[in-house]
Automatic annotation (TrEMBL):
Homodimer. SUPFAM superfamilies: Thiamin diphosphate-binding fold (THDP-binding) (SSF52518). It comes from Listeria cornellensis FSL F6-0969. It is an enzyme of class 2 (transferase). This is 1-deoxy-D-xylulose-5-phosphate synthase.
Length: 266
């Protein structure tokens, strides 16, 4: 689908919460987009309509060429929102893994090449610096965007520049050791990095690992629940300070649990 239209003023309904949004009718040929700056001028209803049309364009295009359709359908609204709020290529978008960059490619003027996607001398399936100034970093493996962001932030500050560095990473890729090490390093350096977490509870495969499995079994076991209850009761029996000690122990337990299981780096 090459053009999209926003519903006439007063009759557009938000798919998420059913809210009626007002917007003027307008049309845009996706194949004629040359720069993402136009997204900044769109209202919410227009961005919703743009997202819907991009989604249909992706389905039709990849049905002919192949490609990573799932990850891209999952980041349509996210990508539109990023281009609405930030200034690419001055602000640096770092797509972890990279196969979810199709929407970014459309908004940066490459929709007219999607018929060559992943073909010889055609549009690449991943960000490529030779392809566009908006592709500031080349990817192909998961959990690497945060390390790249750390390096870019250091270089930016040394040069006295002011642009934003935005690694976009999924909840699955965030379980990678390289991502966690980089996140720890970024926090220690106190660098200005905006980590965009695409927390959609989806990845190419279920999360795995001994820590994930053992902690999950432990927290749901009957013995653990009974021990927790008995220890809490014993603490509360301590004269004067019992309730405070029990409360402090509960907070410590929650801190450890969320750090290891839920990821309170965010």
């Amino acid at each position: 689908m090459e053009t999209f239209k926003v519903a006439r003023k007063g009759v557009y309904q938000n798919d998420i919460d059913g809210e009626i949004l007002e917007s003027e009718l307008f049309c845009l040929d996706l194949l004629k987009i040359t720069d993402p700056a136009f997204v900044k001028d769109l209202d919410v209803a227009q961005m919703e309509a743009l997202s819907a049309d991009i989604r249909e364009f992706l389905i039709q295009s990849t049905s002919k060429t192949g490609g990573h359709i799932g990850p891209n359908l999952g980041v349509v609204e996210l990508t539109v929102a990023l281009h609405h709020c930030f200034d690419s290529p001055e602000d640096k978008f770092l797509w972890d893994v990279g196969h979810q960059s199709y929407v970014h490619k459309i908004l940066t003027g490459r929709a007219n090449r999607f018929d060559t996607l992943r073909q010889h001398d055609g549009l690449d399936g991943f960000p490529k610096r030779k392809e566009s100034e908006h592709d500031v970093w080349e990817t192909g493996h998961s959990s690497t965007s945060l390390s790249a962001a750390a390096g870019m932030a250091i270089a930016r500050d040394i040069r006295g520049q002011k642009y934003h560095v935005l690694p976009i990473i999924g909840d699955g890729a965030l379980t990678g050791g390289m991502a966690l090490e980089a996140l720890n390093h970024i926090g220690d350096m106190k660098k200005n990095v905006i980590v965009v977490l695409n927390d959609n509870n989806m990845s190419i495969a279920p999360n795995v690992g001994a820590m994930h499995n053992v902690l999950g079994k432990l927290r749901t076991s009957g013995k653990f629940k009974r021990a927790k209850k008995d220890i809490e009761a014993a603490m509360k029996k301590i004269p004067t300070a019992g309730d405070k000690i029990a409360g402090a122990a509960e907070r410590i337990k929650d801190s450890i649990k969320y750090l290891l299981v839920q990821g309170t780096f965010f």
